[in-house]
Amino acid sequence: MSGRAQLMWDERVTGYDFGPGHPMDPVRLVLTRDLVRAFGLDPALRLVAAPPAGESTLRLVHDADYVAAVRKASQEPASVAAAYSAYASYGLGTEDNPVFPGMHEVSALIAGQSVAAAEAVWRGDVAHAVNFAGGLHHAMPGSAAGFCVYNDAALAVARLLELGVERVAYVDVDVHHGDGVQTAFWDDPRVLTISLHEHPSSLFPHTGWPQETGGPAAEGGAVNVALPPGTGDAGWLRAFHSVVPELLSAFRPQVLVSQHGADTHVEDPLAHLAVTLDAQRMVAEACHALAHEHAQGRWVALGGGGYAVTDVVPRAWTHLVAIAAGAPLAPEAAVPEEWRHEVYARTRRPAPLRMTDGREPRWTGFEEAGYDPADRLDQAVLATRRAVFPLHGLLP
């Protein structure tokens, strides 16, 4: 196995563009790629541009009529408004998912990067592979949702299963519930989906309750930690470490796929958690360590949400890439000056100066500190442990 990590990148993924004013601004992808380059990480990476996912690959997760609808709508976007009712059932032409020319092609391209990342890791070409343009975890088998057209995360997992992998763990730390991936593998005992997200009572997609634990053939295969709004670094890290490591140890995955939406950040405009870049970096480090501990190092890391597109997303995902490459960046590292100039030139916004928010997060686990039954964070963690841990032979 090569020691280098694989970074999936094709400039054309920046064509995933829902238009001016939409939160999913592709500048976040451009700035991330350029920050990775500015830090001199490219020599530690195997840079790969994979082909788009083909019809048979998309059909591993998505319905044939949905793929046909996406293809048709993206060829004739003007017709979608005229035939809104015909496309609305597919989640297309909505405020969240407006149609744009070439939507099918670029969505399939992003999916192709995640599928190729999974293939490379399973073949042993590299230990780790990153596609920060991916992590589009809301797309359902038959519809678009939440800025997501094709579910590249689910497609990567499905491709691993097609290749013969017997156990895949999917860990999603986006602020929104990873509902599309959970749905795709709801009744498949070969896949363990774990999602830590803001409580569904206060945030889209309003699913991901702790009682959602998988279908009859896969009880315990879905794990959901519903975090109270306002949860900060200490609570977020406590929740992660009180749920994820024990479940991975029990499940024994052969591959870990993780989704690193940066929208848990305190500055993100679309959600209500209060996590910093420093805690996000620590969770990326934890996923890396857990892949080595439980999955022979096989790790596929994806992007996801994140709408503070200059201050947060590029730094969070550059940390992720650097960790995967075995060249982690010091939090106090100065952001390269040339990149800061680029940020201003592209966005007319000032760029951050360092790769940190100036925090040194501290957290305690249940084992060390016990739990407080009056604390909302501890209540959320305990609800998940009580719902799922016994199904894996673990004490709640």
Automatic annotation (TrEMBL):
GO terms for molecular function: histone deacetylase activity. It comes from the Bacteria. One of its GO terms (biological process) is epigenetic regulation of gene expression. Keywords: Acetoin catabolism. The keyword Disulfide bond does not apply. Coiled coil: none annotated. Pathway: Ketone degradation; acetoin degradation. Residues 22-322 form the Histone deacetylase domain. InterPro entries: AcuC, HDACs, His_deacetylse_dom, His_deacetylse_dom_sf, Ureohydrolase_dom_sf. Belongs to the histone deacetylase family. PANTHER family: HISTONE DEACETYLASE HDAC1 (PTHR10625:SF10), HISTONE DEACETYLASE HDAC1-RELATED (PTHR10625). This is Acetoin utilization protein AcuC. It comes from Actinacidiphila cocklensis. The lineage of its organism: Bacteria, Bacillati, Actinomycetota, Actinomycetes, Kitasatosporales.
